[in-house]
Amino acid sequence: MGLMEGKRGVILGVANEMSIAWGIAQQLRAAGAELAFTYLNESLEKRVRPLAESLDSKLILPCDVGSDEAIATTFKEVEKVWGKIDFVVHSVAFASRDDLRRPFTETSRDGFAMALDISAYSLVAVSRYAAPLMTDGGSILSLTYLGSVRAVPNYNVMGVAKAALESCTRYLAAELGEKKIRVNCISAGPIRTLAASGVAGMREKIKYMDVHAPLRRAVDQTDVGKSALYFCSDLSSGVTGEIHYVDGGFSTIVNV
User: Fold this and answer.
1) What distance in Å separates the CA atoms of residue 159 and residue 225, rounded to the nearest whole number?
2) 146-180: per-residue pLDDT in tens?
3) For residue 24, how many C-alpha atoms fall within 13 Å in the half-sphere facing its CB?
4) In terms of DSSP bridges, do strands 59-62 and 87-90 run parallel, antiparallel, or are they unpaired?
5) Residue ranges of the chain whose pLDDT lies below 70
6) How far apart are CA 8 and CA 121, in angstroms?
7) Which residues are catalytic?
């Protein structure tokens, strides 16, 4: 039997086949997990549905993480079909392209609020509705980046949002631990994704890793997926509140 045989979980944040969430989903499915996927709107559904169906998913649901009502509706549908779940992968973030391009001091008030809402608060909201379905305990996993703890050029307000996400991870872990729910966060290195294309200089960062990271290469979606498999499985039964780096060792030696 596979490591995740008999386990069921929800994947939020797949945009296309280059998404980190898709790399995670592939690893979980290969290990035997049954997956539900969410999408933001009809445009993204056209991309997400074929990918989800290729992994035998029967639950492909709309979910706007900026709306408590939408999150509640999504998890009510999951509960109606499955009854309970074992894990959730939160791979959702957003910041205005303008706020990423302009100097940080010129970040708009509305843009700051939106980045924190979608990228950090949504983890709290998703956990609120997912936790009651984890009746036998479970795992909640999210995605962050080095810009949360270092000032990475052009990452700007997203770095602040990721710092908030990591803090949310620790507070959620402290609260949900008594329910045997683990909450962890993977800090992935720079990876070619749709989201990364909005951050100027990301290609140069990836090239830099190929030369200077201890592994002499940039990590990819598969690398992150394998670590996610560990955190979503019972192999990480004693691990919670952790920010786990999957970046080829880059963060341990390089000041960006």
Assistant:
1) 22
2) 999 999 888 999 999 999 999 999 999 999 999 99
3) 32
4) unpaired
5) 1, 192-202, 253-256
6) 24
7) 145, 155
